[in-house]
Write a structure and sequence with these properties.
Number of strands: 4
CATH class of the largest domain: Mainly Alpha
CATH topology of the largest domain: ABC transporter involved in vitamin B12 uptake, BtuC
Shape: globular
CATH architecture of the largest domain: Orthogonal Bundle
Order of helices and strands: HHHHHHEHEHHEHHHHEHHH
Distance between the termini: 74 Å
């Protein structure tokens, strides 16, 4: 039997309207997803130290409204330079998984060489300055060659260096003990000179943002042409805009006091140049490769001896430069130069900023962020009349947290096959 046709007609269903989230929501969701991925894989970057720095500033500003004043922030920007230079050099050593315990003594030794030559012996300051920096380079090279050839752990070699260079500093200074530097001299001007014209700070802020955009965009095009993962143009624009906001804010605050400090400009320029050396040169790639594994580096025909020697030489050079900036800040060199907590602060700054103690991860900007945290704590303690003992406790706690985060991050990366 033929089935009777069903005369009932069904109305065509109305098309379901597809709802698309607004573009802003999609961008925010993508950003949250990227953040979650980084947290799950241990790729935290500079997020923890930026968070800590924000907390430190908020706490001390609530305790004393002068903490974020232009005067205090300007002084802070100069105070970070001496120890920060030493910390930048320490990053190179940490990247290969080693420690340089002699940087404090080398900084005092170099400062003593400069003071004796320029003040006692009447040598022109620029010649004495070059001699002091070369003295730090020589000290680091000797330690690096001994470490690379003898294969004694670096901390043992540099521990011997700590005693040796400190003893040489005391011998050079002699019975006088303290040498006052020329207040109008070249070295003292490093930390006392300010660019008072507002256009200088704003111009450098604009130049920094423009340079970042051009370099990042060129890198994007190169990676895209090679079929490699790359950042989108929108992401590069956002990152550049964020840098521009920070740079112009810093320029505005500094111009409210005395202008852009020469010391801060030199510090940021050195950090930027050494960052390029690490991330854009064959030598820098060798440093990171050596930090990933010595045997793997040897099998890849890398010059392990040369890289190790060069790394300690860079550390010694930057220790000498940092020592000169510290001497410039106090306008003198004494038997206590390079001692105290200088060594601990330099290494702590690099680690707090995100440089791994296990090697292979970190940048020079890690040292910049780390020393900014440490010096912010010191400045906050001074402005709130807090005992120095509390400063040590807080700095130690921040360092402990940084080491724990570093260890957990490494374990997470190993679990995801990234370490």
């Amino acid at each position: 039997m033929r089935k009777m046709a069903d005369n009932t007609r069904t109305e065509p269903s109305a098309p379901v309207a597809k709802t698309r989230r607004p573009r802003r929501d999609r961008v925010a969701a993508r950003g949250v997803a990227v953040l979650r991925h980084k947290l799950s894989t241990g790729e935290l970057g500079s997020l923890p130290v930026v968070f800590v720095l924000a907390v430190v500033w908020i706490v001390f500003q609530s305790l004393n409204e002068n903490f974020l004043s232009p005067r205090n922030l300007s002084n802070l920007s100069v105070d970070i330079v001496g120890t920060g230079m030493i910390a930048v050099g320490s990053v190179f050593v940490l990247l290969i998984g080693e420690l340089d315990l002699s940087v404090g003594s080398i900084s005092g030794f170099a400062a003593a060489v400069f003071a004796v030559l320029s003040v006692n012996d009447g040598v022109p300051e620029w010649i004495a300055l070059i001699a002091a920096v070369l003295a730090g380079t020589a000290a680091g090279t000797v330690q690096g060659f001994s470490f690379a050839r003898v294969r004694v752990p670096a901390f043992v070699i540099t521990l011997a260096g700590l005693l040796t260079w400190n003893g040489l500093m005391l011998c050079i200074l002699g019975d006088s003990g303290t040498i006052n530097l020329n207040e109008n001299g070249l070295v003292v001007q490093l930390t006392s000179y300010y660019f008072s014209q507002d256009a200088v700070a704003y111009g450098l802020a604009a130049a920094a943002a423009a340079t970042m955009f051009v370099v990042s965009n060129q890198n994007r095009r190169r990676r895209k042409a090679a079929g490699m993962p790359h950042r989108s143009l929108r992401m590069i624009t956002v990152r550049t805009g964020l840098l521009a906001v920070i740079a112009f804010a810093v320029a505005y605050v500094l111009n409210q006091f005395q202008g852009l400090p020469l010391a801060l400009l030199i510090f940021l320029a050195v950090a930027a140049v050494l960052d390029i050396v690490l991330r854009r040169t064959h030598y820098g790639r060798q440093v990171y490769a050596l930090g990933g594994g010595v045997e793997a580096a040897r099998r890849a025909s890398l010059s392990v001896t040369g890289v190790r020697t060069a790394v300690l030489a860079v550390s010694g050079t930057m220790a000498a430069v940092g020592g000169l900036f510290i001497a410039s800040r106090i306008s003198s060199v004494s038997q206590s130069s390079g001692s105290g907590v200088l060594l601990l602060n330099a290494i702590a700054a690099a680690v707090i900023g995100g440089t791994s103690l296990f090697g292979g991860r970190g940048t020079t900007w890690s040292a910049v962020l780390g020393i900014l945290v440490i010096q912010s704590i010191a400045s906050g303690m001074a402005i709130t009349d807090t005992p120095a003992a509390v400063q040590f406790v807080i700095t130690g706690g921040v360092l402990f947290a940084a080491v724990v985060i570093d260890s957990l991050s490494r374990h997470s990366q190993e679990a995801h096959g990234r370490a």
